[in-house]
Amino acid sequence: MPRVYAVVNQKGGVGKTTTAINVAANLPELGKTGLIVDMDPQGNTTSGLGVNRSELSRSIYNVIVDAEDINEIIRATAVPGLDILPSHRSLAGAGQLPGCRRVHADPNPV
Ligand SMILES: Nc1ncnc2c1ncn2[C@@H]1O[C@H](COP(=O)(O)OP(=O)(O)OP(=O)(O)O)[C@@H](O)[C@H]1O
Ligand SMILES: [Mg+2]
Fold it and tell me: What does each of the 110 residues of the chain score in pLDDT, given as a tens digit?
């Protein structure tokens, strides 16, 4: 049964990307394969796993906005057994497109 882990924190610069890369990069050593999904327009997880962002023609943006086939955009990383769905700075504009809406955290949670 696959497991999904999310590394999320509203605060910036607290080690989310570093944690995601290092946890994912150690999966093969545990005998597991994995897919890391970079949903940050900064794309630091993508570049951190050896994907040259300037050479990326398609990314998670095209999956979300253009409904492109995810299997054609997922690629291998430098870590054997670890694939990535790469991100791109274009993702920052996805929330502005018709049909997309931003989801804001409730500033006054109960
Ligand atoms: N465990 C750690 N010990 C010391 N420094 C760390 C540790 N984890 C991350 N850092 C450093 O902290 C800085 C921020 O880390 P990182 O980019 O992973 O944070 P982030 O939460 O993803 O940031 P952002 O909100 O900008 O996406 C980097 O310079 C990184 O090298
Ligand atoms: Mg980050």
Answer: 889 999 999 999 999 999 999 999 999 889 999 999 999 999 999 999 999 988 889 999 999 988 999 999 999 998 999 999 999 988 888 777 666 655 555 667 65
The pTM for the full model equals 0.84
For ligand 1, mutation pick of 7, 16, 18, 21 (most atoms within 8 Å of CB)? 18
- What is the torsion angle, in degrees rounded to the nearest 10, for the CA atoms of residue 95, residue 9, residue 29 and residue 71? -10
Q: Which two tokens stand for residue 79?
A: 């870590």
Domain ranges of the chain: 16-96
